[in-house]
Amino acid sequence: MGIAFGTVATIFRNKINDYRGVFNYIEYEDIEDNKPIWFPVKEHRYTEQSTDIFASIPGIPIAYWASDKLVNIFKYTPLEKLSNTRQGMIPGNTNEFLRYWFEVSIYEIGFNHEKSEDILLYGKKWFPYNKGGAFRRWYGNVEHIINMENDGFDIKYSGKNNNYRLRDPKLYFKEAITWSKISSGKISTRYMSPGCMFDIAGCCIFISKDELKYILAFSNSIVASKILSLLVQL
Which of 1, 2, 136, 225 shows the smallest number of beta carbons within 10 Å? Predict the structure, then answer.
């Protein structure tokens, strides 16, 4: 119990219809003289649960602590049916093709573009770029700009790049909900306003304008955190 990573003791047996497994979660603080202070551990960390319930949750996690109400949520329409979820571009040589917005002249930055064709139409070199970033809810973290002059000519042909992916031009400059691919804590979602491009580390949900702010609010809620704790067990 004194080690730095989780330890699990498990008993496997052949399936028995309607069998309810017994689950008990013990923390380091529950231990005294190398044994639990009380057993089973109290405070909702002792559960008898049918393993059939795990099949109702995507990925079939052993989420024995999930209440019936929480599991029933997965019977409704999933977000993937309502939206288009995407990872963004890989610019490759970031030192060459990315800058912070304050490093170049504001007159070289293309703001408020609406579609990929606007890159050639207006002839700007740099464009707002969502690269993920630190934990932050609701808005922000668009600190970078990307060199996409002439549809990314330098990224493609300058000879300074050997690993790039300029994917999904149809999604350039579209408003979205975004979150950081790499995070040390809970998920935090943000509004990405129109006129922005997005990185592989700045994942995005593209959804109808009528539903966007509702999904943004929900994804930052305690309920969403509870749901995600079942799907992504850290």
Answer: 2
Q: What CA–CA distance (Å, rounded) separates 9 from 220? A: 34
Distances 53 to 19, 21, 72, 234 between C-alpha atoms, Å? 11, 11, 10, 20
Domain ranges, ordered by start, for the chain: 20-76, 84-231
Residue identified by tokens 């493609």 is 156
| Alpha-carbon torsion angle 231, 201, 222, 83, nearest 10 | -80
pTM of the prediction? 0.76
Phi, psi dihedrals of residue 44, rounded to the nearest 5°:
65, 25
Pick from 20, 87, 83, 10: nearest CA to 47: 20
Structure tokens at 75: 């019977």
Give the separation between CA 133 and CA 203, rounded to whole angstroms.
11
Reported as a single tens digit per residue, the pLDDT across 46-93 is 777 777 777 777 777 777 777 778 888 888 888 888 888 898 999 989
Cα gap 145→192, rounded to integer Å: 14
